[in-house]
Specification:
By secondary structure, this protein is mainly α. Helices cover 32% and strands 0% of the residues. The protein has two domains: 30 residues, no CATH class; 31 residues, no CATH class. The chain is built from three helices and no strands. The protein is globular, with a radius of gyration of 14 Å. The mean pLDDT is 88.
Length: 72
């Protein structure tokens, strides 16, 4: 099942200064709203999905949430 399309925004990072800098470049767009950084080269197969689990944790606990997956 494919979820309904949502909205998407982007900000161009002018120099390759890392992922943290890329998020910093989007700070005015993000403001104080919750957001997710998704890396398309990382696929986590889970039920419920990884992002859904992270949103649940954020809603329950607040603060920053980082996903990890054990690799055999």
């Amino acid at each position: 099942e494919v979820p309904e399309a949502g909205s998407m925004s982007f900000v161009r990072q002018q120099a390759p200064l890392g992922l943290g800098h890329a998020v910093w470049c989007a700070r005015e767009l993000i403001g104080r709203e919750p957001f997710a950084v998704l890396l398309p080269d990382v696929i986590v197969r889970a039920k419920p999905g990884c992002l859904a689990q992270m949103v649940d944790v954020y809603n329950r606990e607040g603060g920053n949430v980082i996903a990890v997956e054990q690799v055999p």
